[in-house]
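Lecture notes, unit on protein representations.

Consider one protein chain, 263 amino acids long.
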Amino acid sequence: MLSRDIKKAREAYQRGDREASVVAHQGKIAAGESHQHGAGQYIKSAVYGGLDGTVTTFAVVAGVAGASLSSGIVLILGFANLIADGLSMAIGDYLSTKSEQEFHRAERKREEWEVEHYPEGEKLELLELYMAKGIPEEDARTVVEVLSRHKKAWVDVMMVEELGILGDDESPLKNALVTFASFALFGLVPVLAYVLVAMASLPKSWAFPTACGFTAVTLFALGALKVKITGRSWIVSGLEMLLVGGIAAAAAYLTGVLLGGLA
């Protein structure tokens, strides 16, 4: 197990704290952190599934509101979008992750075969790659000779250096489930505003402004959550996501206004 605590190392970097970085590199990873890191790999699916769910569902709501159609149509189209688009995204995520992993496995088998049957050629390729990075030939040869004694490490390095392929242990099924759950959960927010207004017997004219407010808060929260991936300022990331989602919603609303006469 690595002695570096990657989470603390990132935090130290963001603060520019050299002493904290030293501590992070010397400390042992806390019990259970490996599991947390494994769960963290699905944050990307959660964030982008939630973003897509929020934006597309609110686009439906905004388009219907722009066309001045009834709240019932908002609910029908909104829930239909949640199910259909959510399943479409989840299936797409599953198939793309599965296909990518199948490609990676096929390329690894090819590399293993080449290392087994033509090691001289693979050594030469790796030597050229290291020299292209500016490593002197003598040093590059030393590194290659050491690596070539350890087949698994040799293949691992060839996968990254030659093919640019980083291995991962993501589950296609879990990716798909996280994407669908996030899409459905966050995508429900714009529609939920109409449901709450109806349940509270509030004026129907309040429904769309309420949906706008709920959606704005959700988009900002998703942008702030995205810093788990990007490491950027959560405020900047939240505002950026709000801006992008707002542009998409405005476009849908204007489309509804322009085409409202066709309904």
